[in-house]
Amino acid sequence: MASITIRRLDEATKTRLRMRAARHGRSMEAEVRDILKIAADTQPPNAQNLADAIRARFAHLGGVELPEYPRQPPTDPPSFDE
User: How far is CA 34 from the centre of its chain?
Assistant: First the structure.
């Protein structure tokens, strides 16, 4: 079994860990082991880009057909000469 040392853990966090361990009826070391196991076993959400996430969120509403607009050549930029 591996060991780990956690340095610079502030007292407030240590107190909260001790309280949490007491609520669960186990040692602080066992509590931290459980927290680390859960965190390491948790799968990250599927990474997708923003457009795919938005599309998935609103897919149940159905699609929208937009009319096709004719393309026109670009206009010349304005001239601000006097």
Answer: 22
Domain boundary assignment for the chain: 11-61
Between CA 12 and CA 22, with CA 18 as vertex, the angle to 5 degrees is 145
Nearest-angstrom CA–CA distance, 41 and 53: 24
Nearest residue to 48 via CA among 61, 39, 35, 57: 57
Confidence (pTM): 0.53
Beta-carbon contacts of 21 under 8 Å, excluding residues fewer than 6 positions away, are 27, 28, 30, 31
> What does the buried/exposed string (b/e) look like for 42-66 if buried means 16 or more CB atoms within 10 Å of the residue's CB?
eeeeeeeeeeeeeeeeeeeeeeeee
pLDDT in tens, 23-69: 999 999 999 999 999 999 887 777 778 998 888 888 899 888 889 98
